[in-house]
Amino acid sequence: MWLSRDLPLAARPRGVHLITREVLAAVPELADLRVGLLHVHIAHTSASLTLNENASPDVRRDIETWMNAAVPEQFAWTHTLEGSDDMPAHVKASLMGPSLTLPVRDGGLALGVWQGIHLCEHRDRGGSRTLTLTLNGE
């Protein structure tokens, strides 16, 4: 089986946001699969995806804090037409990555106990985002 669909996400503030439930709700067909892959891709250049701890919100805050220290807004950026947070957002998105490929087993994602899918919003007002979900399996 192959399936592809877009998942629109509401606008979120800058930060790292747990979105596992939204992704799973968008692909109920996953429950019918014994084995497969779910590919999740974000169609934006100033936001990214990561797989990380889903229990402690401190982890999400610490990831955001680290990204802001590693890629500061106050830098000699030349691309500044879209605001001071735009070019740092592009760099952060490149570092974190635009997609995840996740294993599917026995009707669910085969993730670690504490793993969850996170949207990393790198802009102050990034707006709504869209994920493309591609599910393949049997």
Automatic annotation (TrEMBL):
Q: What InterPro entries does this protein map onto?
A: UPF0047_YjbQ-like, YjbQ-like_sf
Q: Where does the source fall among the domains of life?
A: Bacteria
Q: Which Pfam families match?
A: YjbQ
Matching NCBIfam families = TIGR00149_YjbQ
- Give the family this protein belongs to, as stated in its UniProt record: Belongs to the UPF0047 family.
| Protein name in the entry | YjbQ family protein
